[in-house]
Design a protein that fits this description.
By secondary structure, this protein is α/β, with parallel strands linked by helices. Helices cover 30% and strands 31% of the residues. The protein is built from seven helices and eleven strands. Strand 10 and strand 11 form a beta hairpin. The model has no long low-confidence stretch (mean pLDDT 89).
Amino acid sequence: MSQNIIAIEAENLIKVYLRGSEKIPAVNDVTLRINKGDFISIIGPSGSGKTTLVNLLGCLDNPTSGVLYLSGRLIFNKGKRLPERELTKIRREIYGYVFQNFYLIPTLTVMENVMLPLTFYRKPGTENEAVKLLQLLGMEHRKDHLPGQISGGEMQRVAIARAMVNRPEVLLADEPTGNLDTKRSSEIVQVLKELNSNIDLTIIMVTHNQELARCAGRMFEMKDGQIFQIDRKS
């Protein structure tokens, strides 16, 4: 972990959804600081606000109120936000996203799926980066296979490679092992740990699995839209 370099800072984040005349507080006054190189996990029951919070931190959704900084840059401030064009650039360049569903294109090869984010935006050397990522994730030998020809654990490795191909600063993993068995789940979390350790990647992982959550450096629990840090060794 890079000491004293703040990657994401949230102050009093609130997200309220409207259901008719009823107000549903999904995230309720969350203040959180994540340093560069942190690997944090967030657990909690369904409906506790985990995914909503990660979507706010990842600029995929807008808070109702509160303040959000990304590497010291003000993103949201009390209902105001950056223009959508700038937010799109941030999502593309700063964040990588991994979800429970792999979202691989079934008619594209492993290599083509990894390269997909580069279709409209390429940094120098990113083609080589894709090959290196597949090597790092043990998937180079599968690069010409279609998703239907590989296992679920391998598909999630491909999804991670795709999320990493633009060299993001922060990886958001929302239930990345939700569709996997225990063995494959442990393998994917080990991959995340290695990425965090080897390249100082900041990772925010949402999971229902407390055992996997304890693999992170810092562990949080959400209840009723609020967040609490807990001892991962307890």
